[in-house]
């Protein structure tokens, strides 16, 4: 009976402290992520890009927020809109924590993705999502920093863009922590981001 009461007391205390919500923790206290844990990576350390209003942006501009960063282009037929739609679901699933998430969409097609086009594209998913761009030389530098692969693929009179389709997650201190594969569900991504935010 005593042990049952002790267990009930522990469960009540744990629930009050929110400990039961930390389903991503292993027995040794380490957080288990659904995404690829890249904490301590020597790539993706910073960026210097321009937003549609002409302001220069670096990681420091988003300190205090978790960042979900994705490379793509506005004329992408499937991967990019799917990734941004998943980001909408992730933010919704985070509930109140969603206000601490900044989604960044970086174009790999700056020749066609003008500031006006980029602003309208991200706003169609969520007004808080922010598009960023650079010139071709800056994009090449960023590709080196992020191990990003991208290239033009001719399609008749036009072209499409092949590109890396992972999403990068930064914690509120501006440290790269995770990579999400395109195949990962919004639920799994939201669980990881919730742990990132609550451990910040």
UniProtKB/TrEMBL annotation:
Residues 38-200 form the Thioredoxin domain. It holds the Pfam family SCO1-SenC. The keyword Mitochondrion does not apply. GO terms for molecular function: metal ion binding. Gene3D superfamilies: Glutaredoxin. The keyword Disulfide bond applies. Belongs to the SCO1/2 family. This is SCO family protein.
């Amino acid at each position: 009976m005593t042990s049952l009461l002790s267990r009930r007391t522990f469960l009540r205390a744990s629930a009050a402290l929110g400990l039961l919500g930390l389903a991503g923790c292993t027995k040794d206290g380490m957080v288990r992520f659904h995404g690829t844990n890249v904490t301590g990576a020597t790539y993706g350390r910073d960026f210097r890009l321009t937003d549609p209003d002409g302001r220069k942006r670096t990681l420091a501009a988003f300190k205090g927020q978790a960042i979900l960063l994705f490379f793509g282009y506005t004329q992408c037929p499937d991967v990019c809109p799917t990734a941004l739609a998943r980001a909408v679901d992730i933010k919704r699933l985070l509930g109140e924590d969603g206000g601490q998430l900044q989604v960044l969409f970086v174009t790999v097609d700056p020749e066609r993705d003008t500031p006006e086009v980029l602003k309208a594209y991200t706003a169609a998913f969520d007004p808080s999502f922010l598009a960023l761009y650079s010139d071709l030389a800056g994009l090449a530098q960023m590709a080196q920093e992020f191990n990003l692969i991208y290239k033009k693929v001719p399609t008749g009179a036009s072209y499409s863009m092949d590109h890396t389709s992972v999403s990068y997650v930064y914690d509120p201190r501006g440290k790269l922590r995770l990579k999400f594969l395109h195949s990962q569900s919004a639920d799994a991504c939201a669980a990881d981001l919730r742990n990132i935010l609550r451990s910040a």
